[in-house]
Amino acid sequence: MNETGENSIQINSTMRTPEDQARIMSDLVKSGGMAEQKKLYGANGRAVLDKYPDQKAMVDKINAIGPSKVSNHLGDPSKINVVDISRYGGIKKPKNFAEKLATNKAVQRVLSPWNSKDRAIHTEIIQPKK
Questions:
Q1: CA-CA distance, 68 to 63, in Å (whole number)?
Q2: What are the CA-CA distances from residue 13 to residues 54, 57, 102, 105 (Å)?
Q3: Radius of gyration, alpha carbons of the chain
Q4: Measuring CA to CA, how many Å separate 23 from each of 3, 43, 125?
Q5: 41, 89, 96, 108 from 93: Cα distances, Å
Q6: DSSP structure string for 37-94
Q7: Torsion sign (Cα): 115, 125, 88, 16
Q8: 3-state DSSP call for residue 99?
Q9: Of 2, 24, 29, 53, which has fewest CB within 10 angstroms of its CB?
Q10: What is the pLDDT along the chain (130 residues), one digit of tens a residue?
């Protein structure tokens, strides 16, 4: 934030449980349609979406595949932290913010509306080994 002159950000999401992931995927289908969500996820996420709208079946599929193989939001927080930052929540220059964030050595990957189908600024931060 300091390097881009931003003084406020809104964090929409961090690490999730399989139940949270299924709920969020369902909400995104309701708001953006199935086709858009299938573009956002890889094969494992698409397999979960195939169980929509059955929440229990979606959670069961996430657990059967392996949560971290569906989304890094379901990863081990001692190895990776994932933060979705709103591009609207107080950021004056969100594209600049996302691009600068991607140059940070601690950041593994940034997905944003400017380089992917993601609506937020999805940030994956590798945790230092102890």
A1: 9
A2: 22, 23, 18, 22
A3: 15
A4: 35, 18, 24
A5: 26, 11, 5, 21
A6: HHHHS-HHHHHHHTTTT-HHHHHHHHHHH-HHHH-GGGS-TTTEEEEEE-SSSS-SSH
A7: positive
A8: helix
A9: 2
A10: 888 889 999 999 999 999 999 999 999 999 999 999 999 899 999 999 999 999 999 999 999 999 999 999 999 999 999 999 999 988 999 999 999 999 999 999 999 999 998 999 999 999 988 7
Find, among 79, 18, 20, the residue nearest to 44 by Cα: 18
Domain edges within the chain: 2-12+76-126, 17-70
Phi, psi dihedral angles at 99 (to 5 degrees): -65, -40
Task: Report the side by side order of strands in the sheet with 107-111.
Answer: 11-13, 80-85, 121-126, 107-111
> ω before 53 within 30° of 0 (cis)?
yes
Distance, in Å, from the CA atom of 95 to the CA atom of 126, rounded to the nearest integer, reads 22
Measured CA to CA, the distance from residue 9 to residue 25 in angstroms comes to 23
